[in-house]
TrEMBL record:
It comes from the Bacteria. Residues 51-146 form the Microcin J25-processing protein McjB C-terminal domain. Pfam families: Transglut_core3. This is Microcin J25-processing protein McjB C-terminal domain-containing protein. InterPro entries: McjB-like, McjB_C. Keywords: Membrane, Transmembrane, Transmembrane helix.
Amino acid sequence: MGKLRTYWSQWRALSASRRRQFLKASVCLISIKLALHLFSFSVFKRLFGLAVKQVPSRSDVAAGYLDDTVWAVRSAAYHLPLSLMCLPQALAVKYLLRGLPGLSLHIGVQQNATDGFAAHAWIESSTSGSIIIGDWPQTVSYRPLWVWV
């Protein structure tokens, strides 16, 4: 009961906008996870592409919105009782920030993987060149196989 009380007090401490972002991220992550299980990746990719393209590009986003969205996706992925690794998180950020120009989804494989095959997904900003979500240690090197702009 103490853990539930802690979660409740943390929830109440959030601002209304952060609560909304957390709920949007939760619904988005659950929907993406479900769709990835229900559809082949080619069907999912086509449906997701349609959903992402239906929003006009915008550059009037409030300062901090990108960081708040990434926080919401990471927090929801951590707290939801599902395995929401890098791909669902990257897809959720790509969807929630679909109006922002210059964000691309990357899927890559680890080079020189000692433990066999390792894949990873991340979102990169073409304007700043930085990784928005899905960062990894500098000792690991991923070779992009697929980039979705």
